[in-house]
Every structure is written in structure tokens, then in C-alpha cells.
Amino acid sequence: MEKIRPLARAFYLGTVRYKKALKLQHNLVNWNKVQPEVASPTLLLLQHNPVYTIGYRDKQYTDEEQKLLESLGADFVKTDRGGLITFHGPGQLVVYPVFSQLQIEIGVRKYVWLLEEVIINLCKKYNIEGIRSPHTGVWVGNDKICAMGINAQKKTYSHGLALNCNTDMLWFSRIVPCGILDKGVTSLSLQTGRDVTVEEVMPLFLKEMSSVFEWDILPLQHCELDNNNIDDETLFQLVTNKKKNETYMGVKS
Fold it and tell me: Can you list the domains of the chain with their CATH numbers?
């Protein structure tokens, strides 16, 4: 019997503040919890305004250190993913796959391995040797090119990965990325010696995601509206094609 491939939808949201995207993820997770038979795997592709984020295991940053990072012009957000401090900003392809484990059964270790495989294959397109290490993510030598941190609560995956395309590396110099000493960061642009944009990388990423995960992914929908001013309900409805009388934040009205 031929295996039925999951059908996923993909959206490019442009540049979005971290808390706005986090709220959207929470709403999609709730939708998967309340209506798992209806909710479809969703890939949120975007870039963030400059932001430093810390995972739930990171307890080392004081209020003074937080204010120092914010004084650089970045947001500072404590979030519900795994991993330690990292930076997100323009020039970085951030991907948040949100899907129910009731629909697609993938264990956490296998899921992270598959995400790493997607990026390793993508790097090969640029003649870059991406490798795994004892630390999560994808590396080029001792430099991390793609950070990963996921959440698997409520039987739904959220959060995901951040691939450095043409990111300003100066932002990383203010922190110890992912809490890993004696390691660096790099980008596709640094490795290739030319400007590699997020827009260039997105179709390559989706192709590899479809191949590695064995998903069928619908054509990327571009929604580069002013997401930072759009209200949370409207943004949720945009991504789910739901109307107000059908659902609100993943909960039937």
C-alpha cells in the first residue's frame, strides 16, 4: 500500500517581531490540540527584528545583562523552547514547523535529526559541508551555521530553526551563542563569499524539507504585510483560512 504523504502549507511572513510570531505559534498549537483532525502541518518562514532569546533552561542572564542587550537595539525574550541564548534578526531564515504528533508520529530525536538533515542537504547546494556535532544544530567546522530549538508540549511541535544567510554577525559577538564556549558562528554568505539572501534560500529549503520529511508542501504563500501591527486574531485567520465564526485562536466559538 502506497504511503500517504502529509500535506503541509507554507507561509512567508516577512520580518516579524519575535513575540508576534510566538503568539501565532501558540495559537496554532492550540488549534492542533482542539481540532487535530482539521489542523494541517504549517511551516512559518520569516525573519525577525533583532532579538535575543533564551530557552527555558537558561537562568544565567540578570536584569542588568538584559538591559545591556536591549540597549543595542534588540528585543530580549524568555521563551518556551529548548536551548540557551541565541540571536535572531534580519538576514536569517527562521522556520517554525507546527504540527500535531497525532497526525505525524516523529520522536523528538528523530525530528531534530531530520531538521539537521534538511540543512546539511541545503548546504551542499552551496558546496558547504554542514555537519552534526554533540551540540544541536548544523555546523561548518567549529562554527554554527544553523541553530535549532524545539518545543514538543501538548503533543504538538513548534519552534524550529534559524539559518544564517546574510546575517550581521556582529550581533552574536555580544553573547555566547547557545551557551557554547570556544565555538563561533558563520553564514551562507561568509562561506560562499557572496551575498546569499533569505529570499534565495527559501525555495531550496522547502524542496529539501519536502524530500527529507516526505511531505507534500503546497506553494509558498507570501504574506509580507505589516505583521507587527496586524492583530493576533487576524494573523491566525490568515494562516489557517479560518473565519471568525468558525474558530478563534484554535478554539471553537
Answer: 49-216 (3.30.930.10)
For 114-156, what is each residue's pLDDT tens digit? Answer: 999 999 999 999 999 999 998 889 999 999 999 998 999 878 9
Q: Which residues contact 14 (CB under 8 A, 6 or more apart)?
A: 46, 47, 223, 224, 225, 227
- Which strand (E) or helix (H) includes residue 145? strand 143-151
Number of separate helices (H) and strands (E) present in the chain: 6, 12
Half-sphere exposure of 245 (CA within 13 A, CB side): 0
Query: Which of 123, 146, 178, 223 is flagged as catalytic?
Result: 178
123 in catalytic set = no
What is the tens place of the pLDDT at every residue in 212-226? 999 999 999 998 755
Q: How far is Cα 29 from Cα 176, in angstroms, rounded to an integer?
A: 30
pTM, whole model, 2 decimals? Answer: 0.88
